[in-house]
Amino acid sequence: MMDKEDAIGGLNRRLFAWWAEHPVVHLLVIALLSALAIVGYVKPSLVRDVFLPAPTQASESRQAPAVARPQPERPQVEPFQIGGGDCVVVATSDDFFREENLLAIRHAVAELEALPQVKSVLWIDSIPGLNLFGLPEPLLPRKNASPRQIEDARRRTLENPLAVGQLISQDGKTLLLHLRLDWFYVTSDEACTSQLRETAESAAARAPHADVQFQVTGRAPLHLMMVHNHMRDSRRYQVIGYSIMVVTALTLFRGVAAAALVALAPALGVFWTMGFLHFFNLQDNPFNDIIVPVLISLVGLADAVHLMVEIRNQRAAGFETRHAARRGVARVGLACALTSLTTAIGFASLAWAHHEIVREFGWCCVLGVGLTFISVLTVVPLGCLSPLGRRLHVGLGKSLIDGQLRKIGLLVAWVLRHDRKVAWLAIGSTLVLAALSLQLTPDEKRYSGLSESAEAAQGLRRLDRALGGLEFGSVRVSWSEQAGEGELLEVLEEVDTALAREPLLGHPLGLHKLLAALPGEGPPVERMTLLELLPASLKRSFYIPEDRTASVQFRIQDLGIAKYGPVFQRVEAELQRISALHPHFSLELDGDAVWRWRHVYRVVTDLATSLATASIIIWVVLTVFYRSLRLGMISIVPNAFPLAATGAILYLTGQHLELVTVCVFTICIGIAVDDTIHFISRYREEAVAGGAHHEVIQRAFASVGSALVMTTIVLVTGMLTAVFGDARDARIFGIMGAVTLTTALFADIVFLPALLHQFTKSR
């Protein structure tokens, strides 16, 4: 039977009350969604093929084949590549120019080449000869070489532009072996990681008194490491996150029944979501199976906590369990729906991102929030009708939060007495922090998600320090028919000088250095006559005469685009100056790192677009829902403050805007607004009951304060599970999320009451 309070609650409240009274509908919803999720785990094609049919042969045949453009005839020569192996074995020693170490490295190369999965090994003995006759000239001496021969080998090696800074460090302590693999024989992950290192170590051990160590890195090991970390972290973070949520719920509620229902509801939502992702082939997204489960479980847990707190309050008021559940859903259901909507809006704003991974992550979170909201509104009311519902009152009023809520209430009372100062402090501090946040600059690292303790990551860092990086950039030089050959060499040397001025650009290499290594001196025009003496494979690595192009390559460390941005700007300015001095030549900075630098601004535009879109839509939704422009404007400050505070902390600690920070900002704007919605919703209900304005606000806080603090503790605890990860991105995600949610609670407890008291009137 509907009581008087429900009768005046409006259509929305009556709708949620009806929902709470129909457990059969809850069971049907749970059965249907669970069945679909199981299909997603077991055989998603049963659903996927119905709604996403494969393209028919007829539709494929209508696609016009691409017309190949005629290409100029080129020599059948494979250019020599100084890097680019699938795997890189990084060998380190105190000095490779010792007889025992030279013997050890030769043993290692021979054993690696004998492995079936290794197609070839590129190292300093593979370098083409630079003598006038093009004859092979090994740089390293053979066995039983005299000390003089070893010193001659050291000098030749460290003077050879293809060796020093490319395959061996300038101090002779780090040496690279680039391995090309035959993937047919790669039957396990170990075949391109640990097996290579173990083979090299066992071979080197046959040389007595050798002190050579090996690490394996490169494209294949780094990719495998990220996949392994991804799978490991997926399981670990979920186990840690769920365990902490269960323990936290037990601690907060001091009752097994309430804690079980609160934990079960989001867990079912996660089960549904991860099953549904298989229908869209999104389960392998690096964010989706690590962050999505923990994230949506935290969001669902927050709604479940608010709902359970209200149901237990109704039980404390004397209502039996069934009626208490009905009244709780009626009073809190609409606010939970609104928080889910605003959270989904925050996630959906990621659809404007340029990164496909981020776009998929956003839509997966939208799906997860919707399914988790349904799980909360079915599991909690249904659980209240089960035997667990008879013990919901156990622990009521004995939780840690209930005991401390009175002290927080005294803080709210103090804020209301100084509402004018606190309100303007809220507005001013938000503006100042937002201004600091706008100073953040974008950044992007190629391997930002690496586990720094892994071998591949340590090998990469060693390679960065010793040889200037695994990645290559280049300066592309092109010229018109009017340009002279001697002038080309002058331009290449000027480009080399410009690159050599930058410490972060490692070891420039081009045609000019190869010619300089040949015997003889003279002006550039005369040295260009030696060009035909270079091996064809080596010459075409840096010089393609039929295209009238040449290139100078350089190494780049994995330090992030923020560090290389000023470097690239200075180099481009120098290239423009060189082009102005040589009008028949055009010079262009090229490479993957350069491309990322040119497009890294998209990180900022992604963030600006996502936040602006989400903020505007959320503000419109709140304004329409509350039917008050004033309340909509007031809600801006407590929602903007946590984002501005987190951004300012990032700026003051020297951090940058990266892919992970953009995701965290967009996620948190959806989550941070939840507490504001619950507070304002209860404030409006208390205002209808009447009383002095400050009493209305205090009653609103007394009603929702416990749930606000509880949900923040749970969310922050869940976010902090990522801090235990070895990957830098995971730690940033956890720390930023925890800081944002903590400052959001501060804004809702301190700033929001002052703003309501200062800028609204008592009804």
What does this structure look like?
The chain is of the alpha+beta class and 763 residues long. It folds into four domains: 1-43 and 243-397, Multidrug efflux transporter AcrB transmembrane fold (Up-down Bundle); 87-217, no CATH class; 399-443 and 600-763, Multidrug efflux transporter AcrB transmembrane domain (Multidrug efflux transporter AcrB transmembrane fold, Up-down Bundle); 461-579, no CATH class. The chain is built from 28 helices and nine strands. Strands 5, 6, 7, 8 and 9 form a five-stranded antiparallel β-sheet that branches. Strands 2-3-1-4 form a four-stranded antiparallel β-sheet, with helices on both faces. β7 (543-544) and β8 (549-556) form a beta hairpin. α14 (400-417) crosses α28 (728-759). The longest helix has 35 residues, at 219-253.
Radius of gyration equals 33 Å
- CATH C-level category of the largest domain: Mainly Alpha
CATH superfamily of the largest domain, by name, is: Multidrug efflux transporter AcrB transmembrane domain
Largest sheet: 5 strands, antiparallel
Provide the descriptors you would attach to this structure in a database record.
4-stranded antiparallel beta sheet, alpha+beta, Multidrug efflux transporter AcrB transmembrane fold, 5-stranded antiparallel beta sheet, 4 domains
Give a quick rundown of the structure.
This protein is of the alpha+beta class.
What order do the helices and strands come in, and which of them pair?
Layout (H helix, E strand, L loop, with lengths): L3 H4 L2 H11 L2 H20 L2 H7 L5 H5 L25 E6 L6 H16 L3 E5 L24 H13 L14 E8 L12 H11 L8 E5 L1 H35 L2 H22 L13 H26 L4 H28 L7 H29 L15 H18 L1 H19 L17 H13 L3 E9 L5 H16 L4 E6 H7 L6 H4 L8 H4 L3 E2 L4 E8 L4 H21 L3 E6 L1 H8 L1 H26 L2 H6 L1 H17 L6 H31 L3 H28 L7 H32 L4
Antiparallel strand pairs: 1-3, 1-4, 2-3, 5-8, 5-9, 6-8, 7-8
